[in-house]
Amino acid sequence: MAITISEKTLSDLEFGTIIDRIQAFCISSLGRESVKNIKPFSDKKQLLSELKKVDEYLTSFQNDNRVPNHSFDTLSKEISLLEIENSYLTPESFLKVQNVAETANEILKFFKNFKEIYPILFEHSQEVEFTTIVIDYIKKIITPFAEVDDKASLNLKSIRKDISYTRNQINESFNRALSKFHSSGYLDDIRESIVDNQRVLAVIPMHKRKVKGSMLGTSKTGSITFIAPQATLQYTRELENLLFEEKQEVILILKTLTDELRPFQSLIIMYQDYLAQLDLIGAKAKYGNHINAILPKISTDKKILLKDAYHPILLEKNKENNLKTIPQSIELNEKQQIIVISGPNAGGKSITLKTIGLLQVMIQSGILIPVSEKSTISIFDRILTDIGDNQSIENQLSTYSYRLKNMRQFLKKCNSNTLFLIDEFGTGSDPELGGALAEIFLEEFYEKKAFGIITTHYANLKVLADELENVVNANMQFDERTLEPLFNLHIGQAGSSFTFEVAQKNGIPFSLINRAKKKVDGEKIRLDKTISKLQKERNKLQKNSENLEKEQTIAKEHSENLNEKHDKVQKKLELFQELYDTNQRMLITGRKVNELVNKYFQTNNKKEMMSEFLKWATIEKTKYLKKNPPEKKTKTEKKQVKVVAKEKKEKFEKIEKEILVKVEEVREVKKEIAKKKAKVKADYIFKINDKVRLLDGTSTGTIEKIEKKIATINYGFLTTKANISKLEIVQAAK
Questions:
Q1: How far apart are alpha carbons 715 and 727 in whole angstroms?
Q2: Rg of the Cα atoms in the chain
Q3: Over the stretch 210-220, which tens digit does the pLDDT of each residue have?
Q4: Please, which residues bridge with residue 714 across strands?
């Protein structure tokens, strides 16, 4: 069944705000247009593919192989001109086409090189043809400075050679006239000027008849007459003719080049569409990175398990205001099909409802969501929402009439693969009558096996939630003393509305509150009091449980520290004992040796000294053997020891060989990675504002200009020129 999610649902959940935020991360106008058209996917296979692409792009921010820059200029005008016969593109337009083709090819090459890291993005790139034919055609004719190359045709080369010669002749003839009339004293102090892009003599008016040429004007004060000398006029007319010929030849060349590119119009469109799609994927990934979003597990079973889920709009708003955002955890499954959230207003019920709805719509639109990695989500065919007042003045509908129309649609469309979200369920009519009707609606949703979350103040709905097997109550926690919301969702118990307590906190006189209590059914007050009391008790128990857990953790850590210290002290004592015993043995040995040596000095009886020393050594050995008797081994045991030793040696040699093989494999992999990195760097096309350094240098500079593979590099305090083959990229220009 196709997935259908209405515009009303998207509006209720403020999905448009998410679209605006993603748009801000686009790098092209076509990308921004694509983001505007983001809608929930109708096909599950396409949705899963999109989510994996965005997730792969997101991972590039955490590894060394980041997706290269893929910004581009829109080619809408150029593509339109290619459809018109006899039209031609300008050199600037050809450079835009070349840039798009080069950028697309660079991305295709990147994903081919790193297809193990980006398998889905690589598969997506295979739909686009890798070819340099368009680039080659353009590079042959158009220079990087958006001019037609002299070599584009023999006629153009000849014309430009004549233009250069004629300009030299103009300059030479003008300089001769300038020198001649200046020495004659006919010129003003400024000597010359420029009029209509032409050099002219600045002649003193009284000598203007003595200077032959064409008068082109005077100064504002009339003190100077501007004259183009006769000698240059002939060359000037010749230059104008040559410039006209050059223009005609350039147009002819541009038309020819345009005709050559016309058959590749579909390829150029394919390049542009691919880069626009990649910009859309990149913008989703950048937004996901901004809000710490992930791709949760997509379950084939009907199940929603959101751990530490944040409302992305609230998260960003609170970040701007330096406020903490409290995440929510919620679960829907076949055993917990519908959750009924109750409690006082301003406690976070609606935000919790919208968080679940917005995250579900985002994931079904191919956008990652800010949740814990332990989260699981499934795909629904429909998401139905009834959030807010929605009175319709134009259609003369009251809130309740509008909500009844909504319920009619819900009942008509609801099935086992529907997620419904209803805020303030049953309100807008008489509480008892509206509550009764709301009960019937809830039972219908339950029978249709739909998943849903509703918020309500109606006691009968809380009771019904307890009675139905797979429906559970929940409440937003409040501090029972201050009545401040804690924004924590607690599953398993209905919440008190704290109606009178909140009124008292907001300054309503106690006498008025008592009068109000008398007007309410006693049983209802008792029920609300019981719920309130249970909620307070549960909060106390929860706090006690948390405190006990903390104390238990601290005690455990303390015990572990004590055990660790005890072990360390025990080891130190053992070491000290060994050291003491060793020192004692050394002292005894030293004394005995000293005694024997002194006796030898007195008697000079070497034989007696050796005899006594051997006797003493034998006694000491006997004592040692008594304390440390040697283990007797049979021949079989000795043989077994040798066998074990041999096996160990063989095993060690085998492991050593395996390790050496693995080491060689790792070395080869590292060499391949190094080669790929070197190739990526070698294929890089340098641009103005790139940060670079010389291959044999350490200083980093910025490229100011590139002319015929020679880059001018600014180091801040000096500039230098170097061939781009001798440069390496440090940081690409944004």
A1: 14
A2: 44
A3: 888 888 888 88
A4: 702, 719
